[in-house]
Amino acid sequence: MSRVCVIGCIWEFIRACIIFFSPVYIDNTVNMEITARRIIWGKCANAGQTCIAPDYILCSQDVQKDFVEKARVALKEFYGENVKNSPDLCRIVSDRHYQ
After folding, report:
1. Other Cβ atoms within 10 Å of 59 Cβ, number
2. How far apart are CA 36 and CA 17, in angstroms?
3. Helix (H) or strand (E) holding 45
4. What pTM was computed for the model?
5. Where in the sequence numbering do the catalytic residues fall?
6. In angstroms, rounded to a whole number, what is the distance separating the alpha carbons of residues 23 and 96?
7. Does pLDDT of 1 surpass 60?
């Protein structure tokens, strides 16, 4: 594979990530409670069908543990103990809408 092809492939990957994906980077300096609440809200608003919904999170393993803990708390706060039965959680209306 030529150097030009490799650079072109890498550029296409980076462009796709910037245009089509919404990554979130979390470091250890954030207020994790606020961060988790905002990310969960962004992902769950309108069943995640918004252009600003986070697609994935980049972070260290220590940050990941803290985020998961705080995200569980935020989910319970937003949707109660049984998320599946929450009237506040958006749902896909039909199979046609799901596809």
Report:
1. 17
2. 22
3. none
4. 0.71
5. 51
6. 28
7. no
